[in-house]
Every structure is written in C-alpha cells, then in structure tokens.
Amino acid sequence: MEHGGDLLSYEDDYSGQLVDFSSNINPLGPPRGLDQMLISSLSSLEMYPDIQYRKLKESLSIYLKCKKENVLVGNGAVEIIDHFIISSKRVILFIPSFSEYEKRAFVHEKIVERISYRKDFTIDIESIEKIIKPKDLLILGNPNNPTGLRIKKDQLIRIYKLIQKKDAYLLLDEAFFEFCPEDYDSIRLFEPYGYQNVGIIRAATKFFALPGIRLGYGCASEEKVKELAQIELPWRVNALGDVAGQFIFKDKDYIKQSKKYIEIEREYVLGALSKIRGVQPFQTDTNYILIQVLLWDEEYIFQWFLKRGLLIRKCSSFLGLPEGYIRVAIKDRKNNKKLIEAFLELSEKGS
Amino acid sequence: MEHGGDLLSYEDDYSGQLVDFSSNINPLGPPRGLDQMLISSLSSLEMYPDIQYRKLKESLSIYLKCKKENVLVGNGAVEIIDHFIISSKRVILFIPSFSEYEKRAFVHEKIVERISYRKDFTIDIESIEKIIKPKDLLILGNPNNPTGLRIKKDQLIRIYKLIQKKDAYLLLDEAFFEFCPEDYDSIRLFEPYGYQNVGIIRAATKFFALPGIRLGYGCASEEKVKELAQIELPWRVNALGDVAGQFIFKDKDYIKQSKKYIEIEREYVLGALSKIRGVQPFQTDTNYILIQVLLWDEEYIFQWFLKRGLLIRKCSSFLGLPEGYIRVAIKDRKNNKKLIEAFLELSEKGS
Q1: Domain range for residue A18?
Q2: Chain A with chain B: Cβ pairs closer than 8 A
Q3: Total number of domains constituting chain B
Q4: CB nearest A213 (choices: B8, B76, B238)
Q5: How much is the pLDDT for B350?
Q6: Least enclosed by CB within 10 Å: which of A7, A93, B174, B223?
Q7: Is residue A8 within 8 angstroms of chain B, CB to CB?
Q8: Do A123 and A138 lie in a common domain?
Q9: What is the pLDDT of residues B239-288, one digit of tens each?
Q10: Which residue of A has its CA nearest to B227?
Q11: Which of A243, A117, A233, A56 has its CA nearest to residue B76?
Q12: What are the φ/ψ torsions at residue A31 (nearest 5 degrees)?
C-alpha cells in the first residue's frame, strides 16, 4: 500500500533535507501555543485517556457546531472510516480515491463496487442510482483525493436524497474541508436531517498540520454514534491527541489565516503550472493539485524532483488513474517556487 | 464495556484527588528523561510517523531480543489483539479475562468458545484439547487479568505443543510481563520454534507507566507479521509513541528498579491483606491482586473506598466471576498503606 509522506524511504536518495510535496499538510504548521499546551500536559501520558472522550467531544461539538452526542473521534480519520466499513454490508466507492477505502473493505471482507469518476473527475449521479442498494455504504471524498474537487452543494443534496430514498448510507470523507472555499458546510447542511443516513469525517491531520498526533473526528446521527461505540477500540485517541483537540479548534485567527494563505498559494501554483508546457494541472478546491504529465513517464519525473530535494506523489498506485499522473501539495511560497522552477527546468529540457 | 482507569466518571463523588487502584500502572512513573525526549521531539507531530515504523521496530527487536522482522506494533496492545482476531476463524478464551478479547471477537463476528479457569484460576489443558480445532485462536493472559496468575513454563510448553499439533494459534497477552518474577521469557522460549503458531503481545502501558501514549508491541513469525500488515491501519502508532519506544527500553536501571519495587510492595500488600478478616486475596505474579470480599457486597465496598478517595475495580463485569470480587493495583508504599488501612477499618466495622 503506497501513501504520501513516506520521507524515510527516500531520504537516502538525496543528501539534504527533502521537501515533502507528497503529503498535503498546512504549510503554516500547527496553531501557536500548542507546543506549550502539550508540554504542560505531558503527565497526561501517565493516565488512560478518558474512555468516553468527554472534554474532547465537547470541544469538537463547539467547533463543528453540532451536539456532542453527534461527535465521533478516532485514531486518525482512517480509523473512523474503518469503523463505518465494519458496520456496513457493501461498500460503494468512486475511483480514483484514497486507497484505504478499498483496503479497509477488503480487510473486513466486504463486497466492493467501484464507480469511475467522469473524465473531469465529477460525479455522475446516475451511475450511483444504477448500483446503490439498501444498507450500502457510499464513500465520497469531499474534496476527493487525489483529484481535489469538492462536490457542488446542489449535487451533494441530490446524492443525499438518492441515498435516503434507497436507505443506503453516505459517508463524506472531508479530511481537507478547511482548505476549501467557504461554499457550504456539510455538518450544517445535514443538521436539519438529524444526520440520518449520512456521516461526515474530518481530521486534525491536514489543516491543523498534525499528522503525527492521530486525531480524526466526525459527525453522525446519535443512533449511528451509539452503533459505532460498539465497534470502537477503547482509548483509541492518545492522551496528547485528546489534549490537542481541546486546544487547536479555538484559534480562529489561525484558521482564517491558513485558509487565506492556501487560497493565495493555490492561485499562484495553479497559475504558474498552467503556463508550463507538458503538464496539465487539474482544477482543485484544496491544498493539492493532480497533474497529468504528458511528456515524461511517472518514474522519470519522480526521480527528477527527488534529485532536486522535492518528494512528489506518484499516482499510478491509485486505482482508476492511468500512468502519467502526479500529485503535489501546495506549500509555502519559497517551496512552491522551487517546485515551479523544477517544473520549468524539466519543461525546457523537453522529453 | 467497563474498564479500569475511568477516573473522570467518579471524580465528582470525591472532593479530593482520587487514588486510582483500578488501573494497574507502575507506581514509579515513566523512565526518567522521557519528558525531555518528548519535548525535543514535538515537531515530529507535524509529520506522519514512519509508515513502516523502522526505528521503533529496531528498538523493540533489541529490547525483546528477537529479529525486527518478528516485531509487531499497534495503538496499544488491544489493537494488536484485534488484528489477530480479524485474522482468525474462531476465538477460544478462558474466563474470567480481559473483556476486550470477547468484545473484539464480537465486533468481527467471530465464533467464541469460552473455557472456565479452574477454581484456583489455573488452566486445565484437557479443557483446551476437547475444544480446539485447526485455525482456532486461543488467547491467554500471561499473567491473566484480573486473576494475576502466570502460566508455569512447563504447562505453557505443553499448551503450545497441543496448539501446534492441532494447527491452531496461541496468542499470549503479556501486557504485565515485566512485573512478573523472572522465571522465563516467552519471546526467548518460542524463538527456537520461529514463533510458528504463537504470538506474544506486550505494551508500554503498564510497566512503563504510559497508558496515554498508546504503544503496544509484540512478536510473531515473519509470516504472521506479513499477514497482519495487510490488516493494520497506517500510522496507527502516533509520533510520540514512536519516539518513546525508541527511548524507554534502553533504561535498564529503571526496569530493574521497578521490578524490585513491585516485588517488595506485592509482598507487603499480600501479607497485610492476608491478615484482614473478611477478604480473601488470591496469589498473584504481577502488580494487581484479585480479592474475594466475603462480608460486603461489591457496590458497598466500592463506595466505601471511593469515600476515602480510593478508586478500586469492581469485578462483576468480568464474565466468569461471580459477585463479590474486586481488583486492586499495587502502588507506592504511601498509597498501599492507605488501602490497607481502609480495608482494616472496613473489617473492624464488620458487615
């Protein structure tokens, strides 16, 4: 199973410090003051975390604007996704998407049905209608990884109505939610429906720049939260993930500033890439860009960047994407410039 | 599901700081220098942990004296147990034992067969022989929780030979291993067999006093480690668990001192309890004691201790134990004295 962020596998191939464009983390780093908070909480490691995560769920309910009875927490978003899969009969997923959806379904011996995104990576609702049955779990990345597109609000409502009609379940993986334009918030959107047949998963990993702390969370109906409680491992969020989750969501300035920063850098990188011969960047709503490389093969381009200290994500391991796609994160201006310069150099060299 | 260590559920019932006799943690606390190590590693939270946990496994292979290809790591011992259960067909367990064995089997819809320990909480091998079939997973706490008894070396070998003969699998939950007398080390014991049909699980939780960090580990055949790699969640050990695991096992003085400390306190508490009318402590090899209370019901005795700031573990939630059993951890001398005094007071008051 290939994933981004695997620096250690490649650090021997480059003499300096690798810049990791393969994992999509907020380049501003975690909220200020978190280090001090964690340092003053180190003794929490000597106790079990609260097995019910009461304070953490309280903090999340304020941040997500839902009742604490609707809150789920897990050891990263991927564990919560895993629990939804355990509780399902059949898993419907669109490809290309995060490889763990299918892997977890395989682990739990669930039947998997794959649907392809359209060529422009949008969703054809009819393709869902043809396949969906009662009790099915439909997983949709919103925005999707590696494609970067967010589902439009009216389409999302139409998908949800279909799921409701069929008595299936819609799981939205919104691990990159905060990077997106503020068009709609699915947690607010589905609140009037009491989150019947729908769950929304997010994480501290990407936007709050804490992949090491392993804090995933989400929102579902009270009934579903109780059902998943029968599946969840005890103490699955570690004590410092618990503490961090009581701290980071309060920092409104950090959230606002990060959103603005990514918006500006996204425009910058997309704009620059669009002028480079031989690469085709796709539109994105988030902090990473899927790029079709037209003149070089994936491995060549990967090595090209690696030699320059830049680790990018090869995408041929994503089912449903042919060879010749890469994904790059949007980082700070200095590193984004390095990336663009490496692309330019490649382009000038030709194939 | 009831567990020890749930201080938050009871802290309103007592005005001061509760002393937690319900979770069995090394009273000496974690190894010295760990705080400084973690503080200097806080930036690791901003990256994904190594998805292969190479340095952590290297450190564990030195500590456990096995090859790094034999090492398993997980989000606490309970997650590794869960993975063994997923990979099994049928789960055989002795009762009373840690409630998560059965719960995880239930989550993964495995058939469960329960065998009762003998009245003195030892194992009747014939009862295993009657029930065990190929591919069965037999889980044994060694020492077992809440009973505290360690399997004798020659009996363990006989159980293992039986498991081998039947082509079943023996999973030893040794979360309390380091507290025990140094009679044998199952990781050394089964090394000549290449860990065929046997896995051993341990954790930093109890002996290294780090329940909040969520670091479980274990040892199995290379083949089994590869099989479980197909089941494991990515990044399941958080970055500071990873760092801690590269630090704590080197502290030989701490390990020696903790073992000695627990040995002395175990003798002290057992000796004192044996002289108290109305309670029957069971022999133990580890840092907790199962006690049959003869004159009071479980809830009464629980509240008695709670009023004195001592949180003990009621045991009626353990399948296979009737009412009237409690479990207490062995702590430092000051708190052990408090516990004994509360028992004495109770005993003098009578029923």
Answers
A1: 7-29+252-349
A2: 154
A3: 2
A4: B238
A5: 73
A6: B223
A7: yes
A8: yes
A9: 999 999 999 999 999 999 999 999 999 999 999 999 999 999 999 999 99
A10: A107
A11: A233
A12: -55, 145
B8·A54 Cβ contact <8 A? yes
Give the pair of three-digit tokens for residue B13.
């019932």
Which residues lie closer than 8 Å to B239 by C-beta, 6 or more apart? A211, A212, A213, B41, B44, B45, B47, B48, B49
Amino acid found at A159? I
Query: DSSP 3-state assignment of A331?
Result: coil
B178 & B284 share domain? no
pLDDT in tens, B289-298: 999 999 899 9
The CA distance from B50 to B328, in Å, is 38
Q: Are residues B122 and B40 in the same domain?
A: yes
Does B309 lie at the interface with A, CB-CB under 8 angstroms? no
CATH number of the domain within which B287 lies: 3.90.1150.10
Please indicate, yes or no, whether residues B225 and B333 belong to a single structural domain of this protein. no
Domain co-membership, B309 together with B193 = no
Q: Is A1's pLDDT higher than 60?
A: no
Residues A117 and A152 in one domain: yes
The minimum CA-CA distance between A218 and chain B, rounded to whole Å, is 18
Is residue A102 within 8 angstroms of chain B, CB to CB?
A: no
| Shared-domain flag, residues B66 and B175 | yes
Pairing of strands A136-141, A111-116: unpaired
Do the Cβ atoms of B54 and A8 come within 8 Å? yes
Nearest residue on chain A to B35, alpha-carbon basis: A42
- Do the Cβ atoms of B236 and A75 come within 8 Å? yes
- Read off the pLDDT of residues A153-172 as tens digits, 9 standing for 90 and up: 999 999 999 999 999 999 99
Do B245 and B257 belong to one domain? no
Per DSSP, the three-state class of A294 is coil
Last residue of a domain, one of A250, A278, A298: A250
